[in-house]
From TrEMBL:
<feature type="domain" description="TIR">
    <location>
        <begin position="13"/>
        <end position="153"/>
    </location>
</feature>
<dbReference type="InterPro" id="IPR036390">
    <property type="entry name" value="WH_DNA-bd_sf"/>
</dbReference>
<dbReference type="GO" id="GO:0043531">
    <property type="term" value="F:ADP binding"/>
</dbReference>
<dbReference type="InterPro" id="IPR027417">
    <property type="entry name" value="P-loop_NTPase"/>
</dbReference>
<dbReference type="Pfam" id="PF23282">
    <property type="entry name" value="WHD_ROQ1"/>
</dbReference>
<dbReference type="InterPro" id="IPR035897">
    <property type="entry name" value="Toll_tir_struct_dom_sf"/>
</dbReference>
<keyword id="KW-0677">Repeat</keyword>
<protein>
    <recommendedName>
        <fullName>TIR domain-containing protein</fullName>
    </recommendedName>
</protein>
<dbReference type="InterPro" id="IPR042197">
    <property type="entry name" value="Apaf_helical"/>
</dbReference>
<keyword id="KW-0611">Plant defense</keyword>
<dbReference type="GO" id="GO:0006952">
    <property type="term" value="P:defense response"/>
</dbReference>
<dbReference type="InterPro" id="IPR000157">
    <property type="entry name" value="TIR_dom"/>
</dbReference>
<dbReference type="InterPro" id="IPR032675">
    <property type="entry name" value="LRR_dom_sf"/>
</dbReference>
<dbReference type="GO" id="GO:0007165">
    <property type="term" value="P:signal transduction"/>
</dbReference>
<dbReference type="InterPro" id="IPR058192">
    <property type="entry name" value="WHD_ROQ1-like"/>
</dbReference>
<dbReference type="InterPro" id="IPR044974">
    <property type="entry name" value="Disease_R_plants"/>
</dbReference>
<dbReference type="InterPro" id="IPR002182">
    <property type="entry name" value="NB-ARC"/>
</dbReference>
Length: 866
């Protein structure tokens, strides 16, 4: 039961058992058997080597071992009381035991080996000083203290090993050696083992969220199956509680197995390398003891040979290298039927590389659980004083659901929380909100340190610029972005939401931003990325930017004043790649001179409420991957031909004055075009063949949309484009032309329409039991004053029970008051084989706030193809 420490749990002692004995009396007989039995049980036991006990003062390492042990077995033999070493060791043990006894925790088993409990000989105690070159001055005082210690020990419930029955006035466990010493030793070891497990259960009893973890892990572990071997990975970011969960599993299940082992893999690997790690694990499982490590010549094939017929429960905690898994648990065949191997790691990619099929990702705590954990630590599970609930929620949020951070925030100021008034709490919470604990950041930096240089740079850009953004967009913007983001996911530094967005925990984001600041030697103009509104304001106003700055993200509503961007504002920022000016308002505090020069290396330009009617002359687009100018004053983007060869996304939504788009035929990689709400836009033509998504919702002046003859459109939204009514040519072109890749299962269109196109038929001869797909036309009516819009997540196709579900977005239009319904044709083309033995259902789902649905399905028709 070698213990492991966790950043999200109280650090466990280093040793399970400290074995104290008189070497010449028992080392090579009784104690050697006892030590072997403890090791077989998986109890990590401290036993000093033969050369250490030479008289004199006890070394510091021995005192440290005593203080870092869970339990103690003291073997009192004939010459125990004439050894200064043994007596001082016992005194140190009794000091630790006294503290634990106050907490009603059993930690000590005395064994009287062929001596009578309570037998104390002061002459023997005095003889303990005989081997010392410089005996202490207070011999008498020390003898009195030893005598008292031995008397206390005699009054403890003890095990007596003797060749004859010894009568005592205490209820003791009396064993006759002549019966079966080995069996009795096993009973002593079992007693320690029972204490160990009861301690584990006590430690884990109040772990917040542990029940839900166990429920989700049950299907992965399949503990009821004795036939198969299961290797289960537990992954998650640093401090999220992986070790705590593994520790709980170990306490719950390891007793059911013939042998077990809990190993801090990273620690043991750093102590002695891969061979030492393998030797250590095998020695614990086989019970040979850590003292025999150097004699073992272990390699992975030896682990396979030794364990393939044993049912074992092994926890490999904090694994960070492939070779560690390959050396300890490369294949299930290495272990006996029914074995369970648990691997915890920050690196899910490592588990994938090693073929671990069952992986449990550990997420941060919910706000409710985080608050409960904080309350549990500070108030011992009791309710906080009245009126403190809101403050409690605020302070627990400082940790953003990370258990290790919650523990740090709670424990570092434990006395402060309990003794403070409500006003004092308010001041303390505000202080921590402004300056979080630095050691939380240090915990997280170890994950960052393991990244390659390219992945570190990607991590910093996500932390400072792209947290919460769409994964595909960010992958396009970063160098080797797809690979780097996958590494960040594997290393548990980011998650990907169900909607495909990158989610980075706020604490991890803060760590990344602090790293950027540290790299610049605390000089803002030397930072790789700028995000602080005050700093950005002064850098742009004073024109102090440097070539070190590669990214800038400014929340314009946080600016202290209006700022003019002039010709020389970006003059020295030659390496700027990412420029983001964003605001929630439709007005901007940034004024732009028509002669201003934007950086020439831009891959991303985001400028909400862009102030000019066109982009500055001399704008360089050769590196541009994304251009987003929402709610702008644009009338034209540019008037001269630009290099658009790398452009993948163009968003000019809500630019109400925009009259036309430039020729986009050269944008051969353009995948997404958003012109939603561009009410002055009259036509969309020369759209590139590469275009996948077109959102032109609300383009009320739009008359013409011409798709490429071999288009790649997956999603086209032309809802509320009233001048496009009955565009049969567009519908036919969308349905019958174009191409799709193997990943394309659905194509979607929403077009204003009053009649069902002739392309659709109510039925189709069943020429084949398995059709290659179908096109569904669904006529939907929406009554005023609402508008209807379909996002990518607004529709779905269920192949198992053939059905199309529509979940449109509805919002009121203050300008539209007439009650006449608007009709839309919703087209969904399913490009996969289907079973036509069941009819296809059309389902409409609306938000619960609509008691009287403003929309309805009027008609549905299907055109099948094979």
């Amino acid at each position: 039961m070698a213990s492991s420490s966790s950043s999200s749990a109280t650090p466990a002692p280093k040793f399970d058992v400290f074995l104290s004995f008189r070497g010449p009396d028992t080392r090579k007989n009784f104690v050697s058997h006892l030590y072997a039995a403890l090791c077989r049980k998986g109890l990590y036991t401290y036993k000093d080597d033969e050369e250490m006990e030479k008289g004199g003062l006890i070394p510091d390492e021995l005192i440290k071992a005593i203080k870092t042990s869970r339990f103690f077995i003291v073997v009192i033999s004939e010459n125990f009381d004439n050894s200064y070493w043994c007596l001082e060791e016992l005194r140190a043990i009794m000091e630790v035991e006294a503290v634990k006894r106050k907490e009603d925790i059993n930690v000590l088993i005395p064994i009287f080996y062929r001596v009578k409990p309570g037998r104390i000989n002061r002459e023997n105690l005095a003889a303990a000083f005989s081997d010392m070159k410089h005996p202490p001055m207070e011999e008498t005082a020390m003898i009195n203290e030893w005598e008292n210690t031995l008397s206390q020990l005699a009054n403890r419930a003890s095990y007596i090993f003797s060749t004859r029955r010894l009568l005592t006035n205490k209820q003791l466990y009396v064993f006759n050696v002549s019966v079966d010493e080995a069996t009795r030793i096993e009973e002593v070891v079992q007693k320690i083992s029972d204490w160990w497990f009861s301690g584990q259960e006590r430690d884990h009893a109040d772990i917040v969220g542990i029940r839900s973890h166990m429920e989700r892990l049950a299907s992965l572990l399949e503990m009821e199956s004795d036939d198969e071997v299961r290797i289960v990975g537990i992954s998650g970011m640093e401090g999220v509680g992986k070790t705590t969960i593994a520790d709980y599993l170990y306490s719950q299940f390891s007793r059911q197995f013939a042998a077990s082992c809990f190993v801090d893999v990273k620690k043991k690997y750093e102590e002695g390398g891969q061979l030492y790690l393998e030797q250590y694990v095998l020695s614990v499982i086989l019970g040979t003891g850590s003292n025999n490590l150097e004699r073992m010549r272990t390699r992975s094939h030896h682990i396979k040979q030794k364990l393939r017929n044993r049912k074992v429960f092994v926890v490999l905690d904090d694994v960070d290298k492939v070779e560690q898994i390959h050396g300890l648990a490369k294949d299930k065949s290495w272990f006996g039927p029914g074995s369970r191997i648990i691997i915890t790691t920050r690196d899910k990619g490592l588990l994938d590389t090693c073929g671990v099929q069952f992986v449990y990702p550990v997420k941060c705590l919910s706000a409710e659980d985080a608050s409960q954990m904080f309350k549990q630590i500070v108030f011992k599970g009791s309710d906080p004083p009245a009126g403190f609930e809101q403050l409690l929620t605020r302070v627990s949020r400082l940790a953003y659901g990370l258990p290790s951070a919650i523990k740090t925030v709670a424990e570092r100021s434990l006395c402060k929380w309990r003794s403070k008034t409500k006003d004092e709490w308010e001041k303390l919470v505000r202080k921590y909100e402004e300056a979080p604990f630095q050691n939380i950041v240090k915990i997280l930096k170890s994950s960052y340190a393991d990244l390659s240089l390219v992945d570190k740079i990607a991590f910093l850009y996500v932390a400072c610029l792209f947290n919460g953004d769409d994964i595909k967009r960010v992958s396009n913007l970063l160098d080797d972005g797809e690979s780097s983001i996958q590494v960040l996911v594997d290393k548990s530094l980011v998650d990907i939401s169900a909607q495909g967005c990158i989610n980075m925990n706020k604490l991890v984001e803060n760590m990344g931003r602090e790293t950027v600041v540290e790299e610049s030697d605390l000089t803002p103009t030397k930072q790789r990325i700028l995000w602080d509104p005050q700093i950005i304001y002064h850098v742009l106003r004073d024109k102090t930017g440097t070539e070190s700055i590669k990214g800038l993200a400014l929340s314009m509503c946080m600016m202290p004043d209006v700022l003019d961007i002039e010709r020389r504002s970006f003059r020295k920022m030659h390496n700027m790649k990412y420029l983001k000016f964003h605001t929630r308002n439709k007005t901007s505090k940034l004024q732009l001179s028509p002669t201003a020069r934007l950086p020439h290396m831009l891959k991303l330009l985001v400028w909400d409420a862009y102030p000019l009617s066109t982009l500055p002359s001399g704008f360089s687009s050769g590196c541009l991957v994304e251009l987003t100018l929402r709610c702008s004053n644009l009338q034209f983007l540019w008037k001269t031909n630009l290099d658009l060869g790398k452009l993948k996304r163009l968003d000019v939504s809500e630019s109400k004055e925009l009259e036309e788009l430039p020729d986009l035929s050269s944008a051969i990689q353009l995948e997404e075009l958003a012109v939603e709400g561009c009410k002055s836009l009259t036509y969309l033509k020369d759209l590139p063949q590469s275009l996948n998504f077109l959102n032109a919702h609300g383009c009320s002046s739009l008359e013409t949309v011409s798709l490429h003859s071999n288009h790649s459109i997956k999603h086209i939204d032309l809802s509320d484009c009233s001048r496009l009514n009955n565009d049969q040519e567009l519908i036919t072109h969308f349905l019958t032309q174009g191409q799709h890749d193997q990943e394309t299962l659905l194509r979607f269109a929403c077009i204003p329409q009053t009649t069902m196109p002739s392309y659709f038929e109510n039925c189709c001869p069943r020429l084949s039991p398995n059709l290659m797909g179908f096109s569904a036309g669904i006529m939907v009516a929406c009554s005023g004053p609402y508008h209807l819009q379909f996002l990518e997540s607004s529709y779905s196709w269920n192949r198992e029970e053939p059905s199309i579900t529509l979940k449109p977005q509805l919002y009121p239009d203050l300008e539209r008051v007439e009650e006449e319904a608007m009709n839309y044709l919703v087209i969904i083309q399913v490009l996969s084989s289907i079973n036509n033995n069941q009819p296809c259902k059309f389902l409409l789902e609306l938000p619960s706030r609509f008691y009287s649905p403003p929309i309805e399905i009027k008609e549905g028709r299907v055109h099948m193809f094979h």
